[in-house]
């Protein structure tokens, strides 16, 4: 994707990215060597649009490996001057992403929790802070972290199938969405809807999600990518520089807030997830999922 | 309601409640001895839901006595581990609450104004900061402070009678809603609607209030309590701990802001209400109310 | 308009106006001597309502002269105790205002850019911070700075002609709306709509603008002023003092933010507008406008 020696011209890295990295940070691969194990990336150089397809069956859960690959892929595209926009979708039928991988949060060491949570943060800082146009083509259910990915894009199109649902349902699992999930959600749907929805851990069928602005548009599933390409073309018709500065102006406050509280947020996550009561809830939830499958 | 020696287990008091009390604070009664003069409280231990009925005719106005009893009742329920949710409604026909008692703001001493305003703040900090699920079953008109009570709950259901109206109509009386009424209103209906509505002191018939989200749902009056119980059951189906942390995350900024500016807010109230022009407005308003009655 | 020796009684100048002026500030004329070159102002003393008509053909663009006259007119009315409200409309067919005058931003000196931008800020601080009731009667298209003027009023009524459009379309010209345009826009239409709309530089036909609250009401063009007068009467029915304090409470945070960052905002504008790439964009845009005309 990324010819050697090419320096990013249009895409100055966002401000949060110029701060010195935390020592135990995400080991970012150099630009040219990345393997596409869990995410398939294709860049159409003529349009400047990359297609990113999650292909980590059964449910595209956001494991440490998935998150790392996602961040690396985003960084590469960000630094590739041939790329101006990304469409994010799923290669797995019926699911966009099931959200954070519960396996990474269950019975692991404190060090593992820290590494995992830092990878979640890193992914979000890259995606929400991207200077590229980002369009989510949500072709399946998208709970919790899956919804976070969609919310972090510039535009959300969802397949109009009422069997597909989307929402920040953490409360249903007995866990709490971190403050930056909340800030993001408030920005998209407003304070009142966010308050009610986060407390109830609500998942919304696509048509309902559309009604209150959690997604921007519904189209028949077979027309989803075509529509995403059309929306992308509309956004890319604008001059990059003004659009990027505008995007940064709208998103800087939230990005800065996480960057300022990043270590504290990791500590909070570790302390919460290490509680025996929370571990028990998660184990019960996983049992339930296993039973459902069989 | 509250067996002796029971310590609250599920409900850690919210952060604002752990700060040292102001010396001239609300004289909170010990847990077991409270009289139900103006508010009837019944706890159904099987469901964990308390019903709180305002019964202070003619209009459930928020006098110092009413506010004190309201705060004490809320504190008791908060500390009662058998109680997880409260439904707030009125036992007086056609009125939920008429708001702050103008008698407490007219021709009284500076000390009285301070005590009264502290009681208003205390009630709001307890209600908005409650870790219980709070549902307002608005079965009558609900102007000014009555609207504040409804806005502070987790969910608002209103009788669909267009003769019942709700809103923050302070401007119509020539007075100004304090900043925390405003912050709360903005969180529920958004900045634009709040700005317009507060300047005009608008009261909205129930159907209109529903349209822009000032109330969440309308039902025929005879089904109001049944619906409130159903909504409560839905909220109580969630694990308490995650729901409470989520609620606190959503509401902490507003609660903290009042706690930080509490004494200043009291001073502002005293200085405003002591003005002869304001006293005159309030006297004229009371005259008008008296004439209406006769 | 303004009898000699009259001190403003009802309208205490807003807080931002009591700070010492910046030395190179807007040269405000003394109260009695103003010429109506670009804006026609008529005060009806019986109703207390002034009508302000933009009459600077061909498109009421906001030149330095226009902005200066606008600020002076607003200041006079603010200080005139006979005036309680202003209706702002256009005397030029089909256009309310085309926004900031590009001629003022093209090929001029750094000193000129500074003077111009200070005049833009001054106009906005006066209009958004006015203690009078302000109603925009938008009787034509209203892009960019024209939209800013409408957004800064208390209420927006637009002619229901779908050929008239309104919006903050700066991004389409390759320029970026400053943070206070953005803050204002977020307050009126919410964060999500503002983010999308600012990035795309969207202009909305009147009916669409109404749908998401960018304007409050649509009426047939011939009834626009009649409707504006009726809305004004409704707002003036409220006691001035409470309404003004409420308005100030809602708007103070935004006004304070610009006052605190005024010099920085001017520097940002100069540095951005002085870029050769931006100058080139603006020249191309002006060429396009010229071709359209001929």
Describe the protein in words:
The structure is a homotrimer. The longest helix of chain A has 21 residues. By secondary structure, chain A is α/β, with parallel strands linked by helices. In chain A, a hairpin with a 4-residue loop joins strand 1 and strand 2. Chain A is globular and about 50 Å long. Chain A has one domain: 2-enoyl-CoA Hydratase, Chain A, domain 1. The termini of chain A are far apart. In chain A, helix 1 runs parallel beside helix 2, helix 2 crosses helix 9 and helix 4 crosses helix 5. In chain A, about 45% of the residues lie in helices and about 15% in strands. Chains B and C meet through helix 5 of B and helix 4 and helix 8 of C.
Protein topology:
The structure is a homotrimer of 294-residue chains.
Chain A: E1 39-44, E2 49-54, E3 61-62, H1 64-79, E4 85-90, E5 94-95, E6 99-100, H2 110-128, E7 133-138, E8 140-143, H3 145-152, E9 155-159, E10 165-167, H4 179-189, H5 191-200, E11 204-205, H6 206-211, E12 217-219, H7 224-236, H8 240-260, H9 262-273, H10 276-293
Parallel strand pairs in A: 2-4, 3-6, 4-7, 5-8, 7-9, 8-10, 9-12
Antiparallel strand pairs in A: 1-2, 10-11
Helix pairs in contact in A: 1-2, 2-9, 4-5
Briefly say what this structure is.
With 294 residues, chain A is α/β, with parallel strands linked by helices. Chain A has helices at residues 64-79, 110-128, 145-152, 179-189, 191-200, 206-211, 224-236, 240-260, 262-273, 276-293, and strands spanning 39-44, 49-54, 61-62, 85-90, 94-95, 99-100, 133-138, 140-143, 155-159, 165-167, 204-205, 217-219. Chains A, B, C: Pfam families: ECH_1 (PF00378).
């Amino acid at each position: 994707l990324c010819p050697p020696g090419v320096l990013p011209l249009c895409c100055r890295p966002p401000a949060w990215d110029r701060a010195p990295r935390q020592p135990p940070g995400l080991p970012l691969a150099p630009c040219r060597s990345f393997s596409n194990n869990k995410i398939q990336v294709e860049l159409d150089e003529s349009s400047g649009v990359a297609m990113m397809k999650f292909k980590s069956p059964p449910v595209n859960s956001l494991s440490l490996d998935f998150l790392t690959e996602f961040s690396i892929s985003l960084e590469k595209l960000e630094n590739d001057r041939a790329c101006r926009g990304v469409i994010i979708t799923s290669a797995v039928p019926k699911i966009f992403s099931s959200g954070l991988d519960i396996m990474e949060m269950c019975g692991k060491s404190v060090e593992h929790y820290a590494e995992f949570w830092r990878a979640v943060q890193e992914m979000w800082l890259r995606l929400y802070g991207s200077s590229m146009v980002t369009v989510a083509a949500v072709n399946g259910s998208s709970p919790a972290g899956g919804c976070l990915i969609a919310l972090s894009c510039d535009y959300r199109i969802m397949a109009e199938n009422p069997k597909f649902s989307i929402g920040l349902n953490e409360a249903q699992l007995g866990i709490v969405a971190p403050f930056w999930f909340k800030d993001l959600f408030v920005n998209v749907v407003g304070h009142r809807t966010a308050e009610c929805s986060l407390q109830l851990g609500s998942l919304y069928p696509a048509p309902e999600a559309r009604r209150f602005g959690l997604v921007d548009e519904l189209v028949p599933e077979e027309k989803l990518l075509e529509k995403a390409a059309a929306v992308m073309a509309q956004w890319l018709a604008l001059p990059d520089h003004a659009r990027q500065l505008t995007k940064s102006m709208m998103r800087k406050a939230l990005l800065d807030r996480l960057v300022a509280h990043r270590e504290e947020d990791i500590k909070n996550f570790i302390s919460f997830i290490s509680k025996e009561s929370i571990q028990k809830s998660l184990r019960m939830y996983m049992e339930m999922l296993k039973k459902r499958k069989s």
